[in-house]
Structures are given as structure tokens and as C-alpha cells.
Amino acid sequence: MKQTRAIALIGVLFFIFGFVTWLNGILIPYLRIACELDNFQSYLVAFAFYIATIVMALPSSGIIRRTGFRNAMMVGLFIMAGGALLFVPAASMRSYPLFLFGLFVIGGGMTVLQTASNPYISVMGPRESAARRISLMGIFNKTAGILSPLILGAIVLKGNEDLEARLAAMDAVQRAAELDALAARVIVPYCVMAAILFGLGVFVRFSGLPEINPEADNQAVAGSTPKTSVWQFPNLILGLVSLFLYVGVEVMAGDTIISYGLSQGFPLTEAKVFTSYTLAAMVIGYILSIVLMPKWISQEKALTVSAVLGLVFTAGALMLDGFASVLCIALLGFANAVMWPAHWPLALHGLGKFTRIGASLLVMGIAGGALLPLAYGYLVDVFNAQQAYWLLVPCYLFILYYAVAGHKKLSWRATPPEKALQNS
């Protein structure tokens, strides 16, 4: 009963992750108009949000060490509430730097929350079913992600289908007034969000959520050479690189699809729901992974299949046009669904006393969501929105390598194949 209640509460936290994270898909085109940005500048939204993971990942480990996992979750929620409140002065002044700072603070709070909650759910049962439990959390996460752009889009983009054309015909005073009114639309939603985040933080504090000791639940691999540093675990370091690339391609699939739809000629009224298509595909992938793992397919095989599907759908997006191409980007959500839950148990396997710091490093991989979409925005300005998706190909190739061989590497020295297979 206690474990069920704990899983339910962590599920609520994952719902919060998804709701806040996938608002960026709407914020990118919204702030591009409201703050008069080019494509590269607009993708600083994703950069500011996800780069916070590099800054806050290691401090998050220190927070957990001092406060415990439960109180660290509370701290993360409080930080996120503070970041949401920064949207009030940012919107009032129509200040893009202040919007970015608010997103950075929200991303920092979410980093603390992620660092505490992902290892928590990973060790609440057998390692073999860890991806299944995280997939269940993913359903909460992506269901929220489906709802959030629809809700925020209905509020901030309502009646603005031809806004850019109307703005072009206005004089400077009219244009400024119209843009100020547009920017002010986010004030109420983000005030409500701040109140919910703060209230949830208080609830977590007094919820009775049990503490865990991941070091006790994740002992070092039997017979392995004693390690003195977290950097001596290739499965972790390669997993960090793979997770970095995965988060980048996942964010690209969700946050760029609206702008890509616009480039393919779809009106804003249609394109604004495309992020929800990506997330709906992810939810389907999560449901399948819960049914199939680990009884019918291992975490490793699921990650392999996902990487191959990512390459297939990327090829479709590059070769096709119109809705078929957009649909291929949305289907990347299905390909990406199992990647987050599969990476964690593979990368944390055998870390023992280094589990907490290892989890902090993995959370730093979320920075992929900061850098790869920014690179995509640059390539859009240099080439076009479709050809910029070539960036996905090397990312999925490395993820495929990690799924097939990289996660089995438990030492930087050459390991006999039969021993690596035995340890995996």
C-alpha cells in the first residue's frame, strides 16, 4: 500500500514535469511574435530551460544529500513556482531576457525534482522492471504534455491566426500596443501554475513519502573491480552521452513541430496542436512498453528498436512533404517513448555508492534539450526547416550503439564479450 501511494505521488510529479516542459512548444512561436525574434532567437526558449540542468545537476545531488529525496522534491517545486512568477514582470515589460531567466529558474527547479524522483522510482522494485515503472511515469508525463500546449495555446494564441499579417500593416504605436496585449496573456496562466507548484511542494513535504537509500538497493556488480570515481563507469558515461542526444531529439520532435508545420504551409490554428500529436504517439509507446517489458522484450532490445524507428521516421520526414512529413516528426514521439526509461537502469547499473552522483550526471543529459534545438534553429536559418532535421541522424546512430554495445561496457578496458554479456 505504501509503495502504491508513493508511486502515485511520483506520478503526480511526473505530470508536473510534462505540463511545464511541453509548454515550450507553444512558447517558441508565441514569444517569436510577441518579442519580435528570428528562428535562432526563439529557440533560446528551449536553451534557457534545459541548460539549467548543467548548472543545477550537481548542486541537486548536494541538496538531496543534505535534505533527503522527499525534501529535495519540495525544494524543486518551490524553485519552479518562483520561476513561474518571473513571467509576470517579463510579460509586463515584454522582456525576452526576463522570460528566458524565468524559464531558466523553472528548469533549475525541475532539475532538482528530476534528480530526486528518477532514482527514486528506479529503485522501488527489481532492476529488470525499472523501465516499466518509469514508462508508467511517462504516461503521466506525456498526458500532461498533450494537455499543456492545448491549454496554453487556447489562451495565448486565440484569435491570432493572422496576427503577423495584421502587425505588418500597423504603425509603430499600434504594433507595440498589440504586442504588449499579446505578452500579457501569459500572466494569469503562470500565476495559477506558481500557486499549484507551491501547494504541491507543501503537500510533498507532509505526504509521508518514504525515504530511500539507492546505494543499498543498487550494489556494485559482483566480481567487478572496485571503483574510486564515477568516471570509471563506461556504461554511465556513454549513457550520459546517449541520454543527452535522446533528450535533444525528443525536444526537437515536440518543440519544433509547430514551427515546422507552419513552414509546410499549415495555418497556426492547425499547427498549434501538432505538439500534442507527438506526445500522443509517446503515450502509445509508453503503454506498449508497460505491456511488453520485461516479459516480452528487454530494456536493451526496446532501446535498440526505438533507435531504429527513430532513423526510419527521420528518413520519412526528410523525404516526404506536407502532412506526411509532419506526421513522421510526430511519430518520433513513438520512437522516443521508451528511451528515457530504458537509459536509467542501464546507465545506473552497478554504480553502488556512486548512484546518487551518477543520477546527477544523467540529469545533466537533459541539457541536450537546450543545445540540439538551438542547433536546429540555426540550421533552419541557414538551410530550411526540413533539411535541418538531418541533425537527428547521428543522434539516433549513437543511441543505437549504446543500446547494442555501449551499455554492456562496464570497464574502459577491453571486456571479453561473454563476460560483458553475463554482466549486462
From TrEMBL:
Single GO biological process annotation from the record: D-glucose transmembrane transport
CC per GO annotation: plasma membrane
SUPFAM superfamilies: MFS general substrate transporter
Membrane topology: Multi-pass membrane protein
Molecular-function annotations in GO: D-glucose transmembrane transporter activity; galactose transmembrane transporter activity
UniProt subcellular location: Cell inner membrane
Domain of life assignment: Bacteria
Keywords noted in UniProt: Cell membrane, Membrane, Transmembrane, Transmembrane helix
InterPro entries from the UniProt entry: Glc/Gal_transptr_bac, MFS, MFS_trans_sf, MFS_TsgA-like
Signal peptide: none
Name of one Pfam family that matches: MFS_1
Transmembrane domains' residue ranges: 7-28, 40-59, 71-90, 96-113, 134-157, 187-206, 236-262, 274-293, 302-318, 354-376, 388-405
Summary of the function given for this chain in its UniProt record: Intake of glucose and galactose.
Similarity comment: Belongs to the major facilitator superfamily. FHS transporter (TC 2.A.1.7) family.
Protein name: Glucose/galactose transporter
